[in-house]
Amino acid sequence: MSVFESRPWLAQYAPGVPHDIAPVAQSLVDMMDESVRRFGARTALDFFGAETTYADLGERIEHVAGALAERGVTAGDRVALVLPNCPQHVIAFYAVLRLGAIVVEHNPLYTADELRHQFDDHGARVAIVWDSTAETVRRFADDLGITTIVGVDMTRAMPRGTRAMLRLPVAKARSSRAALTAGRLPAGVTAWVELERGPRLPAGHPRPALDDIAALQYTSGTTGRPKGAVLSHRNLRANAAQGRAWVPGLSEGAEVVYAALPMFHAYGLTLCLTFAMSIGARLVLLPKFTVELVLQVMRRTPATFLPAVPPIYQRLATGAADEGVSLDGIRFAISGAMSLPVSIVEQWEEATGGLLVEGYGMTESSPVAIGNPMGPTRRPGTEGVPFPSTEIRVVDPDDPSVDRGVGEEGELMLRGPQVFQGYWNRPDETSAALLAGGWLRTGDIVTVSPDGFVTIVDRIKELIITGGFNVAPSEVEQVLAAHPSVESAAVVGLASPQGGEELVAAIVLADGESLDAGSLREHAKRSLAAYKVPRRFAVLDALPTSLIGKVLRREVREQLTSREGDH
Fold first, then answer.
1. Final residue in a domain of this structure, among 208, 224, 256
2. Is CB count within 10 Å lower at the N or C end of the chain?
């Protein structure tokens, strides 16, 4: 029996936070329909000042769903979204779900190799993509049986005046426009506007059930190449409800939430695409985070709730002070995806007068499972305490049937309505991650205080968290090892002063070769997204290995930490 069965952390909850959420009764489609009914006249989406009401959002979802149904999308089909944050992303997400189909989110900045691997795995035949990514997807579409590619020019969702400025014949306008749109679609790619002109889906069209799959979110899990985490409507709706319960001071229909996090990431998906929509918030969509853009929006429509990662809070607080922009009014902020330094908490709370707390989760938990209380019992420097309806155990990582006690190090395990259904077409990896009784192995080594606060000590899994994204070192190592100057490589994460980690590659050079960091970076960029490219390189005579020849990344990390003068 776990020593945490009594849930000692409940006494730490902020006033008004329930110990458990009510059993989920709504699919995400039903949730959106309720928000359309309750908040119809209120602004749902704000994109550079162009506003979409909840009523209009509901209508556009039904028309795009109708157009997708005409193109053969049915329940259970996977539909790939490869989009930045924009109104079309929100509409597409809920339109796919309305049909009982499955959303598969992708990073639009991924390379062709990265995207192709995921498309090959999930088998989507329809893809809705940023027009700047359309050509990338089109190149492998025939090979993988992709029948429909829809290209999205997100500038068409901007105010007319903003679009006119982007067409000005000046360098800054051309640069801004190029960052937002390709300006044209490749042959054979359908324009998004054709979907919005589609017929309204018949009211009687079957709706998804609670336990139907809503989304596949690709994650490296505990090791290896990305695999699709299967998240049901129940999982995602429960996590939105848990987030709502965690912040009892929210005013439904009146909050302003900034989507500074990418919505293709599990964290941005839940906090922006589901949680924000469930409370009738105004979702301010930012296609890319820059301090300048956020401060411009703050002058026009100040945020009240800001989910983000530590570097964003630090840069915003510093930039606002430099520019004389007030951050007052941001009452609540929740940080995730990497450790949150106490210094950033202090800087942010002084700048805003609001609260900044850390949360913890993983794609497999939809993603949030633990958070610091939104109140006086919060404890900066820890991950916080389990969310409502969430249980934890701390176990021997070599034998998860053996529980560890208060203050003892062990692997964290989670159980709750937000825990995923398994990995797409990966039964062996599913059974390794999901144990009997619905317990999820996290791969994180933690300690838990007597009153229930969780602190991460180490990770069993060798994933590197950089900029809020997971990087599997083996994927990067394979790319580096293909360079002619490299005999072998080991990639590790070293602590960054901004929180999280930065990628560092230890390289054993081939005979007669010398280190050319620039050449290695260019080589890596051809196969990897920018955040997976190592920031630094260090040359070693040999990589430390176990008796069976496995590279010991922990020892590599220790060597690099003790060295100076890395490139």
1. 208
2. N
CB burial class (10 A; 0-12, 13-18, 19+) of residue 521? middle
Is there a contact between 372 and 366 (Cβ–Cβ < 8 Å)? no
The answer to whether residue 535 sits within a structural domain is yes
Amino acid identity at 245:
A
Residue 494, in any domain of the structure: yes
What pLDDT, in 10s, does the model give residues 102-144?
999 999 999 999 999 999 999 999 999 999 999 999 999 999 9
pLDDT tens per residue across span 199-217: 999 999 999 999 999 999 9
Q: What is the DSSP pairing of strand 190-191 with strand 102-105? A: unpaired
Best CA proximity match to 535, nearest among 510, 501, 509? 501
> Which candidate, 176, 238, 553, 230, places its Cα nearest to that of 368?
238
Rounded to two decimals, the pTM is 0.87
For residues 404 and 397, what is the distance between their CA atoms, to the nearest angstrom?
Answer: 10
Q: Strand, helix or coil at 197? A: coil
The helix or strand, by DSSP H or E, that contains position 361, with its residue range, turns out to be strand 355-361
Helix, strand or coil for residue 35? helix
SS3 content of the chain, % helix, strand, coil (to 5): 35, 25, 40
246-277 pLDDT, tens digit per residue, is 999 999 999 999 999 999 999 999 999 999 99
Q: Contact at 8 Å (CB) between 29 and 93?
A: no
- What range does the domain containing 556 cover? 464-562
- For 327-368, the pLDDT digits (tens) are 999 999 999 877 788 888 999 999 999 999 999 999 999 999
What's 472's domain CATH number? Answer: 3.30.300.30
Q: How many CA atoms lie within 13 A of 372 on its CB side?
A: 24
Query: Each residue of 388-430: pLDDT tens digit?
Result: 999 999 999 989 999 999 999 999 999 999 999 999 999 999 9
- Residue 52 phi, psi (nearest 5): -125, 125
Residue 444 lies in a domain: no
Distance CA 254, CA 500 (A): 33
For residue 505, the one-letter residue type is A
Last residue of a domain, one of 153, 173, 208: 208
Are β-strands 148-152 and 391-396 bridged in parallel, bridged antiparallel, or unpaired?
Answer: unpaired
Give the other-Cβ count within 10 Å of 442's Cβ. 25
| Assigned token pair, 26 | 């709504």
Determine, yes or no, domain membership for 48. yes
d(C-alpha 401, C-alpha 419), whole Å: 19
Half-sphere exposure of 320 (CA within 13 A, CB side): 23
Tally the domains of the chain.
2
Helix, strand, or coil here: 165? Answer: helix
547 has a pLDDT exceeding 70: no
